[in-house]
Amino acid sequence: MFFQIFLHFVSNLSTIAVGFLSVMVRWISVLKKYVESTRQKKAIFSKQERLPCIAPLVTTVEETPQIVSACVRGHFPQWLRGYLLRVGPGKFEFGKDKYNHWFDGMALLHQFRMEKGTVTYRSKFLQSDTYKANSVHDRIVISEFGTLAVPDPCKNVFERFLSKFEVPAITDNTNVNYVQYKGDYYLSTETNFMNKVDIKTLEKIEKVDWRKFIAVNGATAHPHYDADGTAYNMGNSYGSHGSCYNVIRVPPEKVDLGETIHGAQVICSIASAEGMRPSYYHSFGMTRNYIIFIEQPLKMNLWKVVTSKIRGKSFADGISWEPQYNTRFHVVDKHTGQLLPGMYYSKPFVTFHQINAFEDQGCVVIDLCCQDDGRSLEVYQLQNLRKVGEGLDQVYNSVGRSFPRRFVLPLHVSLNDPEGQNLSPLSYSSASAVKQADGKIWCSYENLHPEGLEDEGGIEFPQINYGQFSGRKYRFFYGCGFRHLVGDSLIKVDVVNKTLTIWREDGFYPSEPVFVPAPGTSEEDGGVILSVVITPKQNENNFLLVLDAKNFEELGRAEVPVQMPYGFHGTFVTI
Ligand SMILES: [Fe+2]
């Protein structure tokens, strides 16, 4: 892949000079827009003082492979029968080598098992090839997002120099999310590798490489699912024609019992606006009929990525926030694979997680957690998260807050549509979509929250009643408030009435809330919220919390005397 990119770059050198003038003209226009956009809106930052130290939440822990019984206070509903599976980083060094970034830690798998009101817990480190190689060598031998693996110190100077030119091994430390294909569970990050796992034993079954099935270099850890189990995802490809964003479809059924993602297809390829500088994205939206891809000005400089090893920099060094560009929405018909002609733009923002998307009156409505400042990735260095006192406050105060926003994309825009008018027919949303003279549709968002959310530090890790309301008009979503660098509250947002319901306990940090529907109800919030709540306090236990999703009242908690780090994502699996 890197060689392909290199060849592509060299072959285009001659055209670079020819295009220089036109690029200059474009830059002047981009800069003009940037000046305008910064005038329009400033990113929102919160101010916090004397934040408590959370270093123990981002520190290496021991795994707990033997099942531990939790001490239940209150009650867990009798109908709640299944596993809450979560994953996140749990080991941050090997020998004398230390990881730099929170995202780099080795995947630790957590399993809470609920049955007849009782709860058990266990955890295991994923036995990825990366984990095993690092363990054998007692040092970091495979680079991660924010950490460059350095050459073996036992090699001589010449060998160490030469090793800088070797193609770097790609990590299979899949520490971001549990995803599902054809009824099987996989751990995913954003590289080409996933690890299939046995959710009962937490043992790795098989390592799967996307590249063996389709021409992509990876896929997100946030696929979407149709009701029949068909999975959709997105992944980049890099070739002689530049970089593309690809929409992937994986069929729901297995032809043979042992197969994995066989039958996966790329159904649409969207060319990146800049071949060597595609956007970074972490998730995408899906309605019943459409995939919505957001090309945001958080750019990956492929030249920097390819040369990271030679330059002695990590992959993270190749990602930059470039608010001189706007954010663009692409809409793809998921049945035909056709990219719709509409050119939807908005002022620059960054989104990591979409909340939900649906169709209404000829429009796609997409709700996203958005930040106006896209520099948060670089802030989540472990040394920053482990700071204390004023230093920690400064780190927090430098991160842009995330807020839920609604965008409306009218699907059937014609040449005859008037310029300068809002083309959204939706009376319930103040989001607008205005056709410009150049044919582009300029999208302005609606805030989905009351002002009180700013006091909660914004919201992230959004979850909905996915089984019944994904791709449909909905009313509620759940997430974590961020009055700290990790979630410090659970929030239910009513996007229709714009109200908040909040659960908080000082000194405790809840994980992404997972909604589990109660049997026999079709009410959107008829069910419970599960969240793993952890604390840096040595004399307090971590616990699995169960809330009534309607009113956020605590039903019970299952305390476990085990140290757990703050993780990323998870899922509930009924047994
Ligand atoms: Fe995520």
Automatic annotation (TrEMBL):
> Could you name the domain of life of the organism this protein comes from?
Eukaryota
Q: Which GO terms describe its cellular component?
A: mitochondrion
Q: Name one GO molecular function term.
A: beta-carotene 15,15'-dioxygenase activity
Reaction(s) catalysed by this chain's protein? all-trans-zeaxanthin + O2 = (3R)-3-hydroxy-10'-apo-beta-carotenal + (3R)-hydroxy-beta-ionone; 5-cis-lycopene + O2 = 5-cis-10'-apo-lycopenal + (3E,5E)-6,10-dimethylundeca-3,5,9-trien-2-one; all-trans-zeaxanthin + 2 O2 = 4,9-dimethyldodeca-2,4,6,8,10-pentaenedial + 2 (3R)-hydroxy-beta-ionone; all-trans-beta-carotene + O2 = beta-ionone + all-trans-10'-apo-beta-carotenal
Tell me which residues bind Fe cation: H222, H282, H353, H569
List localization entries: Mitochondrion
Q: Which GO terms describe its biological process?
A: carotene catabolic process; regulation of mitochondrial membrane potential; regulation of reactive oxygen species metabolic process; retinal metabolic process; xanthophyll catabolic process
Cofactor note text: Binds 1 Fe(2+) ion per subunit.
The reply to whether Membrane figures as a keyword in the UniProt entry is no
User: What cofactors does the UniProt entry give for this protein?
Assistant: Fe(2+)
Q: Which UniProt keywords apply?
A: Dioxygenase, Iron, Lipid metabolism, Metal-binding, Mitochondrion, Oxidoreductase
General function of this protein: Broad specificity mitochondrial dioxygenase that mediates the asymmetric oxidative cleavage of carotenoids. Cleaves carotenes (pure hydrocarbon carotenoids) such as all-trans-beta-carotene and lycopene as well as xanthophylls (oxygenated carotenoids) such as zeaxanthin, lutein and beta-cryptoxanthin at both the 9,10 and the 9',10' carbon-carbon double bond. Through its function in carotenoids metabolism regulates oxidative stress and the production of important signaling molecules.
Q: Which family does the record claim for this protein?
A: Belongs to the carotenoid oxygenase family.
* Annotated protein name in UniProt: Carotenoid-cleaving dioxygenase, mitochondrial
Per the UniProt record, the source organism is Panthera leo (Lion)
